[in-house]
Amino acid sequence: MQVVQLNNVSLRYDSNKVLDEISVSVQEGEYVVILGASGCGKTSLLRMIAGLISPTSGSIFLTGRDVTRVAPRHRDVALVPQQAGVYPHWPIGRSIGMGVRGRLSRPEREQRIREAAKMVELESLLDRLPEQLSGGQLRRAAVAKAIASRASVRLLDEPLSAIDANLRYQIEKDLSRLHQQSPGVTIHVTHDGGEAMRLASRVAVIENGKIAQFDTPDQLRTRPATPGVASALGRSALITVPVTRIDGAWASKDGRKVAGPDAPTGSTSVLGYYEEDLKPLEAGQAPESSDHWIDHQRNATVNHDRIVWFLE
Ligand SMILES: Nc1ncnc2c1ncn2[C@@H]1O[C@H](COP(=O)(O)OP(=O)(O)OP(=O)(O)O)[C@@H](O)[C@H]1O
């Protein structure tokens, strides 16, 4: 079942076009990560799904219902915002309770809060004020609020930023587990490629206002659609070389030839490789070879099987 569907959604802030005709469909059970550089429109996309802002054009469907003009409280969504997500002057148990929807008796409501808090291991801290919690615990409380809502669309805006590495891995595991235990979908925004690849069933990479690729982590790793996608995955720096197809090989501007995928003569393409795959050029090593490409600028070589081809 399609839980979230965006049809040709565009967003402008005055004359600034941030998102351009985005179409995405998220199926029941999927953990989708939206990956992109700072300022590319990730938060705006989540806020449109939550109903906090309206698209300039296009439509949004949640579980088959057109909600483009429906108020946030009438959508089956829970948003964990980038900042806070809990109220500064309330014990966190009360904030988590604000996520609970529907008419429940007081004991039922408290039970829902306790269950959500237990899932993120905050059960014993429900009476504490936010200022009495660590950054990681605060994030967990905000996630508990989304869990307590039982919304079928959970929207997490950079839930792991500003958390130290050890705790990040722990919370990543928690997020995966919580997702598996809850029906619906999770949509998680980040600019950290590693985080995206570890958590997602599919990753949507935003580039220049469009979805450059929406694919499984495995497909992204082995067949990134553009150099921008390959860079966003966050391995070491991606080095690119424009090439043209001539006489059954690819030639760089300085006339060096390299074997690669077949294409008609005259086609242009880009080959790319990660800095981490470079090996120092050894003295006396053959200048050109069918199994490696030489990067003269860096005095290093890269094996052909490490080269990623971006065919146009
Ligand atoms: N209310 C607003 N009015 C005008 N411009 C805005 C508004 N909100 C966001 N923008 C602009 O829209 C663009 C996208 O912002 P958004 O917060 O969606 O990006 P992001 O990908 O989530 O960024 P980050 O990773 O830095 O949080 C940015 O250029 C931002 O400056």
From TrEMBL:
What keywords would UniProt list here?
Answer: ATP-binding, Cell membrane, Hydrolase, Membrane, Nucleotide-binding, Translocase, Transport
- Output one GO MF annotation: ATP binding
Task: Give the Enzyme Commission number.
Answer: 3.6.3.20
Q: Is the keyword Nucleotidyltransferase assigned to this protein?
A: no
List the PROSITE patterns hit by this protein, alphabetically.
ABC_TRANSPORTER_1, ABC_TRANSPORTER_2
Q: Does the keyword Cytoplasm apply?
A: no
Source domain of life is Bacteria
Enzyme class, first EC level, given as a word:
hydrolase
Annotated ABC transporter domain ranges read 4-233
Task: Please state what the protein is called.
Answer: Sn-glycerol-3-phosphate import ATP-binding protein UgpC
Say which species the protein is native to: Stieleria magnilauensis
What gene, per UniProt, encodes this protein?
Answer: ugpC
